[in-house]
Amino acid sequence: MVSDKFLNLLYLPLTVYYYFMKKYRVGILGATGTVGQRFVQLLKDHPQFEITSLAASDRSVGKPYREACAWKLSGAIPEYVREIVVEPIEPPLECDLVFSSLPSGVARESEEAFARAGFPVISNSSAYRMDEDVPLLIPEINPAHLGLIEVQQRKRGFSKGFIVTNPNCAVVSFAPPLAALDKQFGVEAVFVTTLQAISGAGYPGVSSFDITDNVLPYIAGEEPKVEIEAQKILGKFVDGAIEKADFTVSAQCFRVHVIDGHTASIRVKLRQSSTLEAVFEAMNKFPSLSLYSSPKNFIEVCDEPSRPQPRLDRDNGKGMTITVGRLFPDNIFDYRFVSLSHNTVRGAAGAAILNAELLIDKGFI
Ligand code: NAP
User: Has 169 been annotated as catalytic?
Assistant: First the structure.
């Protein structure tokens, strides 16, 4: 049996390496919301980032964070942010980059203002996701899309600022297994049904009267996003633009009585025939990265017949692993499976933090 002392010795070089990493000062736009709180939680003790500015709506401006924020995550508000006074969503903020978790209506104007003022903007919002010159990033899948930054800066006249986005939280739950399949066999068509958690609607979100003992078959604006984002994510960066992947997605999106964790039920038609074993391997062996927030396994395919389940599997890889199960040949499409991700970690704040780590690693920040 390996002792704790021995393990600590093994981790020592890594701890020393993290200690000497350059620290970037970060601001969070929408810091008091569901995703904003997850940023605050995930950035505590992060070796590369330190929160120096928190910004939100007029309702919160001028108040210390502890007072402005209705904290909904487990544990207390981290000590280091409690007394930071919330600022308006206007540049400049005292930081080197901003994470944005603003509602899309507000994000369009504010994120551009920050990028124009020279800040890297790493956004969760849908406002810029489908703009042709804005990367829609999953670092393990499409890091080459960062080539769009130069195109964006030229086109929009940004000097050193830029906008990078992460996908819709439901799309994140199934785009990774699709990427694994597309790479090996080509994807032709996808039918997806999403079962989305309550926290995906922000706070206070869906009324308890509506969601308790119920399934809601409508999430405003969600199905169109789920039907178009994966093609951009799986697209190729060619001659300064993204050539979208050529497959069709048909989506139905439901809100279900789960706090965190979006589940997706997927049926997929492939361009080349494959075996079940090869499909399993393609997903399970899709490589992760070695950034600070990268999970050991990017995609984990489980054998247990009753998994994945949100309550049991959303925290796999500290919320950054995509868990797949129920993988079988399908009677109409080629294969079917169930895929799950943590919507406020891999689907939001964790995704944006990983994007920022990639941007630093590739020299964009
Ligand atoms: P939320 O809980 O409603 O929080 C919204 C945040 O934006 C709050 O900090 C709020 O500040 C601020 N805000 C609202 N209106 C504003 C305005 N007019 N001006 C300035 N600030 C304003 O929402 P959320 O769930 O965190 O979602 C935030 C964004 O992330 C949305 O674009 C959403 O689509 C996206 N997203 C969410 C998830 C998820 O799972 N929840 C996942 C992926 C992406 P106050 O507290 O001061 O009102």
Answer: yes
Same domain, 277 and 300: yes
If asked whether residues 143 and 203 sit together in one domain, one would say no
Q: What is the pTM of this model?
A: 0.96
144 plus 203 within the same structural domain: no
Atom 46 of ligand 1, nearest CA residue: 32
Nearest residue to 341 (alpha-carbon basis) of 292, 293, 308: 308
Ligand 1 pocket test, pick from 101, 168, 199, 203 with the greatest ligand atom count within 8 Å of Cβ, gives 101
Please, what's the largest Cα pairwise distance for the chain?
60
Asked if 19 contacts 45 with a C-beta cutoff of 8 angstroms, the reply is: no
Q: Looking at the structure, do residues 21 and 154 belong to the same domain, yes or no?
A: yes
Q: Does the pLDDT at position 290 exceed 80?
A: yes
Ligand 1, atom 13: closest residue by C-alpha: 57
- Domain carrying residue 145: 4-167+349-361
| Rg (the chain; Cα; Å) | 20
- Same domain for 57 and 79, yes or no, is yes
Average pLDDT over residues 238-267: 98
Q: Are residues 355 and 308 in the same domain?
A: no
